[in-house]
Please model this.
Amino acid sequence: MPYTFSQSQQLFERAQQSIAGGINSGIRLMEKPVPLYFEKGAGARVWDVDGNEYIDYQLGQGALLYGHAPAGLAEAIAAQAKLGLHWAAQSKLELDVAERLQQMVPATELVRFNNSATEAVMAAFRLARAHTGRRLILKFEGHYHGWGDEGLVGFANPPSTWADPEPARVHPSKGIISAVTEQFVVARWNDIEHLRQRVADYRGQIAAIVCEPAMCNTCCIEPGEGMLAAIRALCDQEGMLMIADETITGFRFGAGGAQAYYGVRPDLTVFGKAIGGGTPFAALTGTRAAMAKIISGEAMHAGTLNANPLCLAASRWCLDAVIALGPEHPATLNRLGQKLMAGLRALADEHDIPLRPQGPGLAFHTLMVKPDVAARPVENYRDYIQLQDVPRWTHLRRCLLEEGVRAIERGLWSISLAHTEADIDEALARAAVAFKRHAATWPAA
Ligand SMILES: Cc1ncc(COP(=O)(O)O)c(C=O)c1O
Model:
């Protein structure tokens, strides 16, 4: 029998009286039929308040690289909690974590900690501007860099703006500082000539180019041949900093992050999510030269809870877990993910569902292709918007959820170090039921 969600439904209704809109992060409203309330997790599984068990590929929006409640992490946090929750001062723990980052990520010479990647991105942009004395940051359509005013410019440019010769600087939120959009140049992902032209148009004014090394937030689109090298070369030629936002890719793509996976060396890197394994933790790392204005204090960087010992204790445990895997990481995650992708593709073919899994495996996106559009490679944000059938994916995702398989609402799937072959096999068996029901009930009345 498909799962039902009456307890979650009741809590969500109750929450309307105490929590604005009933949720604490806008994206959580995307979960259908109702934003779920969870009670516990273990390894690759998570249980909601209705007692439904899910094989989890949402994984706390990717933060739970180590799975739910991995053995040892709670103890590491508890041991620290007994010694103190917060000092707003220094501890040896922060050196332990910073030195591990230096060991793991070659471009990390120096580190600063924050509590969210949104903050670390803000710090990176401020630092790049201070470093170069320039105003503009170049970013790519479809790349997400946190929910701050600066992180979302051009993230979701509506098709009505696409005819403009320059990609638009649309911000999806009301209430932003109005001048913020003018502090950005927006470019299309995976179009090197177009990127060169954007840089030439604003020569001498761009402080940094920022990207997700793989565009995980929009259809998990990997960098095309030469893309990251072209960004690096342009930054070197034009005196700009290269900022890699590894909030999703960091430690998921291996101990050295996506920068090691794809072989590129940024000046500044943002780590979030997996660096804290589910605790509110993030880092800005970079070369000594790029960090100079933070060292001198000219670019302010602060935060009451920065380098909080609880998060540091968690992060030290997480980084040690990645280091201990050695060279088999991320190959194992990729193998498991590719098996899941192949199984989903086979089920889609069997039921004539136009679903195309795309990505390296350790993370991937399930693109549902619109009925009236010819399928083609998805190389950038615009391809994705033109191809994706949102209502149909939402319907299939709900069928999957009702059979106990949970992917990220937009279609991204992440594999954790806790997932096994058996979890993949079981997910595919459950998905077989979900795909069959989806095929029989779509289009929904
Ligand atoms: C690439 C990227 N950068 C930044 C962020 C912001 O991270 P946080 O929500 O922890 O502030 C996210 C969050 O999903 C992200 O995916």
Remarks:
- The first strand starts at residue 38 and ends at 42.
- The mean pLDDT is 97.
- The two ends are 21 Å apart (CA to CA).
- Residues 123 and 301 are 7 Å apart (CA to CA).
